Amino acid sequence: MSVMKQFNLFTACVAGAMLLCSIQTSAQLQTPEGSQRAQVTQRVGITDITIDYGRPSVKEREIWGKLVPYGYNNLGFGTSTAAPWRAGANMNTTIEFAHNAKVEGKNIKAGKYGLHVALKEDGGATVIFSNNATSWGSYFYDEKEDALRVDVKTTEATHTETLTFLFPKVEANSAVAAMRWEKKEIPFKIEVDVKDIVMKGIKNDLRNSAGFTQSNWDSAANYAFNADELDQALEWVDASIKGSFFSKETFANLSLKSQILAKQGKTSEAMTYVDKAAKLGNTSQVYQLGLGLIKLDQKDKALTILKNNVKNSNGAWPSNYGLARAYSATGDYKNAIKAINTSIANAPDRFKARLNGNLEKLKKGEDIN
After folding, report:
1. How much is the pTM?
2. Of 280, 268, 293, 214, the residue nearest 246 (C-alpha)
3. In Å, how far from its chain's centre is CA 87?
4. pLDDT tens digits, residue range 31-57?
5. Angle at CA of residue 362, ends 358 and 367, nearest 5°
6. Are 166 and 39 in contact (CB under 8 A)?
7. Pick from 103, 109, 105: nearest CA to 197
8. Per residue in 231-263, pLDDT tens?
9. Which of 66, 84, 88, 60 is nearest to 74 (CA)?
């Protein structure tokens, strides 16, 4: 065999060995885990809270104090000599917060954490959030990596064969996360400062491409108004009305500005924006504007606005219904009855039952607002 052939054969063998080594080290077969992996996410405001975990089953085993030992234990493997339970099976159970939050009243920063539980014999548990979220189980648990510990009370629950994390209670600014397994539930409350997170997010978004669209300024102002951040709401709605290349007066921003000013106690100024908005609104929009004025106890202004709405809409039935409500608010039931009768005559059949019900109330001298 020539030297060149020997060299080529050697090169081919080396290349083949390297390829085999590469395949062996990088290729991973996917096979089912004995305890299937699961993930549950709950949104609070705009904050996603996600728990990822392995789901062991009871399988008629004794769980608490035996399969899951109490407290902290030397598991005979890894580096930890005082390991809590991994709160699931196989890889770390993890919990991730999209924004800063509180757990049981204690602050925790946005991020992903290993989730562990140290169960107590007296019916309590310590829920541990570890900065190490990538280990296998709790064999390498290190107390120095704790981000947060909270003590909670466990509760009895109906039998749950396969370990389950869920969010059994959700409110506007909080959620209760709970782990259920066998006949035990381990709950912990998570709170989120929704308003602060949303307001900061809006301020940042309005500095990027979202800030080049007028409707986004209207949406921002609406959120701030409903969150009772009136000065900020006024600043944002003013940007929608004037001062930028996209700014223009619309029914939406003018009526919103009137609501902001009214809530600030600037009633006279608010009414000037009501008049401007009414000129730009369609029948339905002006109807809603009038109802808003009734709620603000601006009954005379509501009556003026809703009278004009009848004229400008060629007597459309919703405008006459709005006028009936305005007359009713001022106690003028005679004219309210006339207006609602006109509305009933022109309304679609599906609305007539409600209108006739209001008519009967007006005949008894009862306000229909």
Report:
1. 0.83
2. 214
3. 26
4. 787 789 999 999 999 999 999 999 999
5. 85
6. no
7. 109
8. 999 999 999 999 999 999 999 999 999 999 999
9. 84
